[in-house]
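To the wet lab folks,

You asked to see what we're planning to order before we commit. Fair enough. Below is the target structure as tokens, and below that is the sequence we designed to fit it. If anything looks off to you, flag it before the synthesis order goes out.
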């Protein structure tokens, strides 16, 4: 279990940024606060599916997300309403230029293609209405954080046309959102 960072701890007293460390961090003091030869720290965590989730750091009997320590060492505290997004989608890349502080809604707009995708396109899925009718669904998150959908019937349009219309429609919606200042990234289906 990972814990929110404890701001009563001076993280810079025990850890230091290191671009050569896989987690982005090295330990510089032991538990008693005595300086030590810096050593690489961090343990990869995994989901039940086997996907890697992040680097975690164990400190004083608790686990912390390494990317949060990297952020705090660079910029100070983290607003509890915000999350840290890995811009390239790689949760193991804790280089500071790959991290940004953002809202959960914006972070969701930077999600990579789900590995169970049957279409190979972010935001476009094959949907069964439950009565044997299939649709391609274009979906996106609007500026208010609400998920929107538009459906294209395979029985009326044919599979290829329905799929292509769903892809084009989603790209159009994302382009409009970006023009209006929404924060979608290049990885998110455009």
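Sequence we intend to order:
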């Amino acid at each position: 279990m990972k814990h929110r960072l404890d701001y009563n701890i001076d993280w810079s007293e025990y850890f230091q940024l290191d671009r050569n460390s896989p987690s982005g961090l090295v330990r510089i003091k032991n538990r008693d606060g005595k300086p030590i030869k810096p050593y690489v720290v961090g343990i990869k965590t995994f989901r039940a599916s086997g996907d890697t989730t992040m680097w975690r750091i164990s400190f004083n009997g608790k686990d912390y997300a390494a990317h949060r320590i990297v952020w705090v060492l660079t910029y100070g505290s983290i607003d509890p309403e915000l999350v840290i997004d890995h811009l390239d989608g790689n949760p193991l890349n804790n280089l500071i230029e790959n991290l940004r502080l953002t809202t959960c809604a914006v972070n969701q707009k930077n999600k990579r293609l789900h590995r169970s995708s049957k279409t190979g396109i972010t935001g476009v899925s094959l949907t069964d209405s439950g009565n044997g009718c299939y649709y391609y669904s274009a979906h996106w998150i609007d500026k208010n954080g609400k998920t929107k959908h538009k459906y294209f019937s395979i029985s009326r349009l044919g599979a290829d046309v329905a799929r292509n219309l769903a892809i084009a429609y989603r790209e159009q919606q994302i382009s409009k959102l970006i023009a209006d200042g929404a924060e979608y990234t290049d990885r998110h289906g455009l």
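Structural context that might help your review: The mean pLDDT is 86. The radius of gyration is 21 Å.

Thanks,
Computational group
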